[in-house]
Each structure stands twice: as structure tokens, then as C-alpha cells.
Design brief:
Blueprint lengths: L8 H4 L13 E2 L2 E6 L14 H10 L4 E3 L5 E3 L2 E6 L5 E6 L13 H12 L17 H5 L10 E5 L2 E5 L7 H4 L10 H4 L18 E7 L3 E6 L13 E6 L3 H9 L5 E2 L7 H6 L3 E14 L9 H9 L3 H9 L4 E2 L17 H5 L8 H10 L11 E6 L2 H18 L3 E6 L1 H9 L5 E7 L6 H4 L16 H12 L3 H17 L3 E13 L3 E2 L2 E2 L5 E2 L4 E3 L1
Parallel strand pairs: 2-11, 2-12, 15-16, 15-17
Antiparallel strand pairs: 1-22, 3-4, 5-6, 6-8, 7-8, 9-10, 10-11, 12-18, 13-17, 13-18, 14-18, 19-22, 20-21
Length: 531
């Protein structure tokens, strides 16, 4: 969830706002943080959820990190050099960086981690994030060997990276969790290394002390961390709470210091009382249609369902949390060809909101006038009060506007993710948070074979456009091509955009020093409690 290079940040700086609280008297102790779900894994090469990335951001550290200004900063690498053509990076690792077991963090660990994330055998959903490396995509598709991938340990503390092409936001990508290192010797001999505090070895500011499934994770300062002197908290208690009402109740009873979730109906009050704060976030919530399963293998049916939703009613009347109605996939906050222009504003609205007349006509043309004869439809969402609120509102809109009865099914996070991965759904709640400051971070999701292509969409014309975006160095060409690609997605009704994010976070007044990035990552390394 990030991006960088020196010149690149002329673009990215337009966008971002992080948060790093100030100074004052400090006290040690522990911070209680509510995660919205239990991480499916905390192997950074495999994870996909926000909950997992939040935990990993405390346990691991990439070559770079994202600072309070949402810019890349030195982390495991103390400095780097970039070639004149922008396609080669040389990173110089800190010689005092150690793993939590005391072993040195080496360039070989990074090389191993990156190549293993790309390995076809690991089948990482985020492998495509490594396609920026020379021959990364070819290796992942079994068309080249690992030896040809553009990452090489020159020596223990020098890592050479060769890219397929200049990538202005690569320094930001280097802070993303798929680019974290893993301990080569431990990981290569124990495939379950990340499942237990006894075997998990990280290089970040904290270590995992306890993991009680469906309850909590406990983290403690990592005494081997190179910057241990600036880690403030004695303990982090990460509570695994998927019930938003419970989170607010515990927060108001002083049983929590920070929390990611809250009922949509409570957001206005919590913001007004300054118990929660809104943070800009590069994110979009949408429903994905399974384009390979009836009745949503018919684009007219998908389009009818897409047009029959009143997004303004969702955001203003139902959610009430500062969200913005979405009429496309890519959210505001990303620059277009001209840095002072916003991609979303240039692209405009790509679908008409609440176009009931057209929706009914399309459904009839598909053979289902007034919804008659339509196979049973189920909408799947992961357990959350706000997701339930949206699902019930959309369910009622589809009933009123299309005459369609839709069954709602909610599932615990891991079961829900498993069903998405197996394409065992018809319509499913989905979302995406940008990983770096370029619209391609959203659009590449729907490329054929992408590990996060939830709808199972495949369109050769669309794939060709994504390849043009990846290979062109002309920003005008890239941006226009991405506008064209987004239009294809909306015309094909692969997804139903709902709203763009503005993310509320529960925070006690006494909590200072944390960083919340525009990509949704929370860094607690510098967090402390002010007396």
C-alpha cells in the first residue's frame, strides 16, 4: 500500500495525509487495539487482509516504510541508489538490523522472500505485486527460472533490484507487506513458521508473544530491533473483534484504546464527540458479480443490478460516515497525467445512479421481466454491522426496483475469504485499498489470472490495456489507457461500485505517536500514551 521514488513524490504528495501525533509527557504500559477480523495468516508473502497487514506492519519491516507524510522513508535499508534510467535500485541494508532471534537481517533474506513470494508453488494472491521485478511475471507463470528474477544479494548487506521498466513508485512498493523479508533458514525448513509465537521470527519493532485464536494477539517490543530505543509501548494487545457494537462499547468503557470498526449509525456521534476521527483513504467498496455463474454470467443482468442501486441514499442515509458515492472503481486522490488533476475527476461518473427504467428494461431483455424466472440470488458479505446495513439497503432496492428477492448470507472472515477464492458465490461484498499512488493498483485486479480477481473476469481487450499501462513511460498514454480500461469494467458491469472510503478510527485522546497512512496501514512503533 504505498509507492515512491524521489521525483515520484511530486505526484504522491498531492494526495496524502497521514497522522503522527505530537509530544508531551509519556507513560509506558500497553495499548489495546481492536482488529476487525482475525488474520488469515501473518506470513507477509501470503496475506491479503487489512487485519493481517496491520499485524505484519508491527512484526516486520521492509526496505522502506511509510512516514507520517505518506512518503517512503528508510527502514531495513538505510539508503539506496537509483540508476539514471530508473530501472535499477541498489539498497544498502543496516548492519545493525537483526531478526528477533538475534540473527542478522541479510540481503539473502530479501532475495529469498521475494523469489518465494513469486514461486508458483506458494500461489500467493499478491504475486502480481512482484511483477515489477525483471522476469517476475515469467517466473510466476513457469516461463523462467528463479535465477532470472531481478533481485540479487550482491553481498550480505547490498541488494540489487532490476525492474522490468522504470517504476516511479517502487520505493513505496518496497514498503508493502509482500516485499517484507522472511528469515530464509527458518522459513525454508518450516512451512508453518508464522502460525505460532514459538516459531515466528520477524525483523520489526515488535514480536508475537501470544496468539489466542478468535480472541487476541499479544505483542511485545523486539529487543533485537535496530531502532528499539524508539519503540515506546511495553505491550500491544490486539483484540480480534468482528462485532462493531462490541468495539464501541468496550472503547467507551475504557477497555480499548483504538479500534478499526464501529456501527455506521454511531459514526456521526463518535465523530461529533471526538472519539473517532476520519482519515483519507484510497479505498473503494463494491459488490463483485461472479461472471461465470448464472444469472450473472449475463452482462445485462449484471448491468440491471448495478443500475438499480441508489448510492446517494446509501452514503447519506444509511452509512453516514463521510463516505462518497462511487460511480467508478478508482477513488479520488490519485493524480492524472497532469499532477494537479485528479484521475477520478477527469474520468467522471461512469454509470448513472438509480437508473431504474434502464435497469428494468435490461432485466426484461435478459429474459426476466420484473424479475420473473430469475434463479435464486444470494448476496454474500463478511460479518460486520456496517456490511449488514449496506446489504439490507441494497436488498430492499433490488426488491423495489427490479422485483427480485435476494437472500443475504454473512460469514466469518476466513470462511468468507475461502468462498471468494473458490468462486463459491453469486454476488459478494468486496473492496480494495490502494497499495500505491497509481490507478493501476485498482485496475490490475481484474486482469485475467490476477490472484485478487474475485469476479473471475477475463477480457483480452482489457488485459491488453493493462499491459500497455505497465509498459508505457508516457503518463498521458498511461492515464488515458487506464480511463479506457475502467470504462470497459463499468460497461461490462463486472462490479457494482458502492462508495469511496473515508475511514473512521476510534482513538483515545491519550494515544499519540502512531501513524495512519492513506493506504490504511497503521504503524504503532512510535505510539505512546500521554499522561
Amino acid at each position: 500500500m504505498q509507492k515512491k521514488s524521489v521525483i515520484f513524490w511530486l505526484v504522491a504528495i498531492v494526495l496524502l495525509t497521514g497522522m503522527m501525533a505530537g509530544c508531551g509527557d509519556k507513560e509506558t504500559g500497553y495499548l489495546r487495539y481492536a482488529l476487525s477480523a482475525e488474520p488469515e495468516t501473518i506470513d507477509p508473502r501470503k496475506s491479503t487482509s487489512v487485519a493481517a497487514s496491520t499485524v505484519e506492519a508491527q512484526l516486520f519491516e521492509g526496505l522502506t516504510t511509510i512516514n507520517e507524510k505518506n512518503q517512503p522513508a528508510p527502514a531495513a535499508a538505510e539508503k539506496w541508489e537509483v540508476s539514471a534510467d530508473g530501472a535499477k535500485y541498489t539498497f544498502f541494508l543496516r548492519k545493525n538490523a537483526k531478526w528477533s532471534n538475534g540473527d542478522p537481517v541479510t540481503a539473502q533474506d530479501f532475495e529469498y522472500a521475494w523469489k518465494s513470494a513469486l514461486s508458483p508453488e506458494l500461489a500467493s494472491a499478491y504475486a502480481y505485486q512482484m511483477y515489477y521485478l525483471k522476469n517476475g511475471e515469467a517466473y510466476n507463470n513457469k516461463l523462467a527460472s528463479a535465477d532470472t528474477v531481478g533481485v540479487r544479494a550482491v553481498d550480505d548487506y547490498t541488494l540489487e533490484v532490476i525492474l522490468e521498466r522504470p517504476t516511479p513508485y517502487f520505493l513505496s512498493l518496497a514498503a508493502f507487506h509482500t516485499y517484507y523479508p522472511v528469515h530464509r533458514k527458518i522459513v525454508s525448513t518450516d512451512e508453518r513458521w508464522s502460525a505460532s509465537p514459538k516459531t515466528l521470527v520477524g525483523n520489526g519493532p515488535f514480536i508475537l508473544k501470544e496468539w489466542v485464536h478468535n480472541n487476541k494477539m499479544e505483542l511485545a517490543p523486539n529487543p533485537q530491533y535496530w531502532d528499539a530505543a524508539n519503540v515506546k509501548m511495553d505491550k500491544l494487545e490486539l483484540l480480534l473483534l468482528d462485532n462493531a457494537s462490541t468495539v464501541v462499547s468496550m472503547f467507551e468503557r475504557d477497555q480499548l484504546d483504538m479500534g478499526e470498526t464501529m456501527p455506521a449509525s454511531e459514526v456521526p456521534r463518535l465523530l461529533r464527540e471526538k472519539k473517532a476521527f476520519l482519515y483519507p483513504q484510497l479505498g473503494t467498496d463494491y459488490y463483485s458479480f461472479n461472471v461465470n455463474q448464472a444469472p450473472f454470467d449475463n452482462p445485462k443482468v449484471r448491468k440491471a443490478f448495478q443500475l438499480a442501486v441508489d448510492r446517494d441514499a446509501l452514503t447519506v442515509k444509511a452509512l453516514q460516515g463521510g463516505q462518497q458515492a462511487a460511480y467508478g472503481l478508482v477513488p479520488p486522490g490519485l493524480s492524472d497525467a497532469k499532477p494537479d488533476q485528479d484521475f477520478r475527476q477527469v474520468g467522471g461518473a461512469l454509470l448513472k445512479d438509480h437508473d431504474v427504467e434502464t435497469a428494468r428494461r435490461l432485466l426484461a431483455e435478459a429474459g426476466y421481466p420484473e424479475g420473473k424466472g430469475l434463479p435464486p440470488v444470494t448476496l454474500l458479505y463478511n460479518t460486520s454491522e456496517s456490511h449488514k446495513l449496506v446489504a439490507e439497503a441494497v436488498q430492499e432496492m433490488w426488491k423495489k426496483n427490479l422485483g427480485v428477492q435476494v437472500q443475504l448470507t454473512n460469514q466469518e472472515w476466513k470462511v468468507y475469504v475461502s468462498n471468494l477464492e473458490q468462486y463459491d458465490f453469486q454476488v459478494a461484498r468486496d473492496n480494495w485499498l490502494g497499495d500505491y499512488a497509481d490507478p493501476i493498483t485498482f485496475l490490475e485486479l481484474f486482469e485475467t489470472g490476477n490472484g485478487n480477481n474475485v469476479p473471475g473476469y477475463s477480457n483480452r481487450a482489457y488485459d491488453r490495456l493493462i499491459q500497455i499501462v505497465r509498459t508505457s513511460n508516457d503518463q498521458s498514454v498511461r492515464m488515458q489507457t487506464m480511463h479506457d480500461a475502467e470504462k470497459i469494467l463499468m460497461d461490462d458491469a463486472v462490479l457494482l461500485p458502492l462508495y469511496f472510503h473515508s475511514s473512521p478510527l476510534l482513538v483515545k485522546d491519550k494515544v499519540k505517536g502512531y501513524i495512519r497512512t492513506v493506504f490504511g496501514t497503521v504503524y504503532l512503533k512510535g505510539a505512546y500514551l500521554q499522561q
